[in-house]
Amino acid sequence: MERERISGTFSGNRGLQIEEKLIFEQDEPGRSGVDLPEPPTVKDRLGGVRRRQGIGLPGLSEPQVVRHFTRLSQKNYAIDLGLYPLGSCTMKHNPRLNEKVVRAEGLADLHPMQPESTVQGALELIDTLAHWLKTLTGMPAVAMSPAAGAHGELCGVMAIRAALEHRGDKRTRILVPESAHGTNPATAAACGYAVDPIPANARGRVDLAAFKSKLGSDVAGIMITNPNTCGLFEDEILEISEAIHGAGGYFYADGANFNAIVGRVRPGDLGVDCMHINLHKTFSTPHGGGGPGSGPVVLSEALAPFAPLPYVVHEPNGFRLIEHDHDPAASGKAFGRLKGFHGQMGMFVRALAYMMSHGADGLRQASGDAVLNANYLLACLSDELTPAFDGPCMHEVLFDDRFLKDTGVTTLDFAKALIDEGFHPMTMYFPLVVHGALLMEPTETESKDGLDLFIGTVKALANRAKTGDTAFFREAPKLTPRRRLDETTAARRPVLRWRPKQEQGVAAE
Amino acid sequence: MRYLPLTESDRRAMLAKIGVPSIESLYRDVPERVRLNRPVDLPPHQGEIEVERAILAMARKNLGTTKAPSFLGAGAYRHHIPASVDHLIQRGEFLTSYTPYQPEVSQGTLQALFEFQTQVALITGMDVANASMYDGATACAEAVMMAGRITRRTRAVLSGGLHPHYRAVTATHAHFLGFELDLLQPNPEGGEDLAARLDANTSCVVVQNPGFFGQVRDWTKLGEACRAAGALLIIVVTEPVSLGLVTSPGDVGADIVAAEGQGIGNALGFGGPYVGLFATREKYVRQMPGRLAGETVDADGRRGWVLTLSTREQHIRREKATSNICTNSGLCALAFTIHLALLGEAGFTRLAELNHAKAVQLADRIARTGKAKVLSDGFFNEFTLQLPRPAAEVVEAMAKRGILAGVPVSRFYPDNSDLANLLLVTATEMTSEDDMARFCSALGEVL
Amino acid sequence: MASVKYTDEHEWIRVDGDTATVGITDYAQNQLGDVVYVELPKPGQKVEKGKQAAVVESVKAASEVYAPITGEVIEVNQALVDEPATINSDPMGKGWFMKLRLANASELDGLMDEAGYKKFVEGLH
Fold this sequence. Notes:
The complex is a heterotrimer.
Chain A: H1 2-7, H2 62-73, H3 96-102, H4 120-137, E1 141-143, H5 149-166, E2 173-177, H6 183-190, E3 194-198, H7 208-214, E4 219-225, H8 237-246, E5 250-254, E6 274-276, E7 297-299, E8 311-315, E9 318-322, H9 345-381, E10 386-387, E11 397-400, H10 411-420, E12 427-428, E13 438-440, H11 448-466, H12 470-475, H13 487-492, H14 501-507
Parallel strand pairs in A: 2-3, 2-4, 4-5, 5-6
Antiparallel strand pairs in A: 1-7, 6-7, 8-9, 10-11, 11-13, 12-13
Helix pairs in contact in A: 3-9, 4-9, 5-6, 9-11
Chain B: H1 8-18, H2 48-59, H3 83-89, H4 92-95, H5 107-124, E1 128-129, H6 136-151, E2 155-158, H7 164-177, E3 180-183, E4 202-208, H8 220-228, E5 232-237, E6 256-260, E7 276-280, E8 293-297, E9 303-307, H9 314-317, H10 330-369, E10 373-374, E11 382-386, H11 391-400, E12 407-408, E13 422-426, H12 433-446
Parallel strand pairs in B: 2-3, 2-4, 4-5, 5-6
Antiparallel strand pairs in B: 1-7, 6-7, 8-9, 10-11, 11-13, 12-13
Helix pairs in contact in B: 3-10, 5-10, 6-7, 10-12
Chain C: E1 3-6, E2 11-16, E3 19-24, H1 26-32, E4 35-39, E5 46-47, E6 52-58, E7 62-66, E8 71-76, H2 79-82, H3 86-89, E9 98-102, H4 114-122
């Protein structure tokens, strides 16, 4: 049968790779994987809004659920398995100590609205992390509540807008380099700003002259990533900073690439007004298949008064959570609230455990090793691949697709072939300023042996591409649980949930 | 250092290959005057023993819900999480995997997200759900902005029964987008005429069910009024377990549902990370923010899943994106999915019945003490108590007796003296007979 | 006699009297990849030269389609909503987006003819 033809086995399984249906396809009405006591009989006080019909959730036992998700997990690549050379993602090792401490009694079991007197240790932890972040960045204040990097960006740009509104200065434009991550212009637009792109120069940095020519009294600020998304340090950053401030605007820094400079350069010294930090990048909190993240935002003296609520303060009597702007300890100018409750506490605990483990000396060594590893990739691959810019790079290295010219093999095909070799592909087609970009960030938690194998593999694939073996690349990957998937049909006729058979018949075209 | 694999000999060999003398020389593009020459003023590296000791010392200063009977709700709920959930989410392939942009090596994450989306659509009674948002409050703000895009109107009406954090987050977004909000007063005794606030520029009306003060309502008529006015009905749910017993938002005509999923699968964790649920009607799917997992086939014709409709998202649309959101709450959504898979229909509905029964028992016992009045006529597992004294003081006194008695409304509305004596009290399947007895006796002592 | 003109944003416009049919070029559809969705204006809607009139989405990109001239939308190609792939297979014919009533025929003067557009595209690489 078909299944046998594809897998070569009767069951469709292949050794440790087990096929697994949806939970909805394993339903047995009445079955459950949780034993709960019989509810006591009471006179219900629902006010007549009791559910009118069944929900349709499937019933499975505990062994089935455990098998289901275990089998699913085995179809995933992960940092625990191998390298993710994803530029600007900083896929470093996720220490298990972090997982242990976050689950401690007295942390995991705290309700956010308990009286402050009962959670002094939790507030102390948030304050301690805040201190580490402020010291590492050389900034006087930090907003801890944003839930992710993009959320932190929103926080920064909202703080800028609030500061401008406060001084009655209506400005309409934000300058964003063309190489910026897509969240930057999306954030600017979400705050009501028009986005004005700044071109890159031939060295891959912000074109200083072009930037200066765009300045005016209607520019609210600039959003810069440094090191930038080409993996290069913006060496004219001090001039840029001076220019934007001179024009009355603010300097937002996207901290996605902080791993290159942590412990070695402080954004505060560069004149940054606000910078979000991705705890799930630089500070090792796990990616969890897409989240949760945490994006605290360090703030300059100028923007600190506008920080969103809530935040922790350390007073002689202990720690307090400032939740209302008229609190005597508050500035009275908070731009609002960004999230329910206080912030991603679970990520705070993990990040603090990581920082304390590394310490000031370890963090400095980590950023150095991250930059060393990326430059090692550049040095080893610059013959077979085409670097987009001259080195040295920072913690990530950018290649373009010139080395694939006339081979018939695209950057995408190249990446898919890498999957069969046991590596997650590098970031592709980003940044947009280069053609067919391949952006690689190894991080400091890769061993030299591991990198050498990766380098050897990439060279071998590059050479194979140059022989014109397009069929090999187009077929890749072949060894994964699924081959290339049809994204076009998925977008043309979106199927975004399971439906029972009788409904499917109606829903089909 | 245990997380750094490179040895000194490795570094020397690599520097030689690169052709530079030191790691410092790789930083030559950094202006001299901003280069730090020594480590910053923070403690040096420590092993697991010291780090654990330091963090647990902070943990020990807190009185958690494991030790103290807890009656806290107000948007975060203490439920039992089956042991399997935490084991499964800690599998390295789930914990340490990346966003599923390469679907061939992410089918585990993608299939789980597809199951999550289906579960959320089922319990909310809606057509389609996304792969999660940061939390309920941000989901609520995103829902209002989505209503604005769909109707091309710039005004929203927010019920007084909507969680104050959700109101505040929505107000923050509204301010920066030039959106006008009609914020009704907090209403512990119910009685709002939301339909009367609809006008030609209203994009949506936002209500919460069960409401912030605990009350449950049938919003069908409001849904009809909204439709007649060309506006959308947004229903917020902060206690997802309520969906096991209460009429679903879909059944009363909601256009968008924004909810907090923490109550299923996720610990209280002092407020985060949580997981926002977001669901809507089929016709609005392209206006929905956030990630979406969609079903498709691979090159061999076998069923698989991919992230889809990505052109709404920031990495493609950039400034025209529906939202700037980049992450979902992946691992928390997975915990939700596993917990709900374990519960199933029978378990979930029983859990909800149990919660309501416990709350009814607690409300009756409190009423019998004669010390406090239960204000909510209909509720799920949370209700409002009117005390003879400011609730914040009472809570502090109860805490000294080792009981986390509930959330004083004044914590959210410190300036509203009418609300000062109100306490939000929750019971769940975790609330034992003994807990209830201790609560009542302590309350008697304090009042 | 209908004549086809082109914009530098890769829209084509075929004029017949005071009615104009608008679509995107073969170059544009090739750049986009498989089209998955279109967002069309409504009949009766007024469009302005150079401003967004429609959106076309592929798996990897979403692009604005700008009105080549100012006018009023008379008809839109609803078939594209069910079969967006038509834009890939027949961009100059069955893949048309909308029919407009011209407000000002002189706006056509600034647009490229077939030879001019061909040269323009060649210059893009």
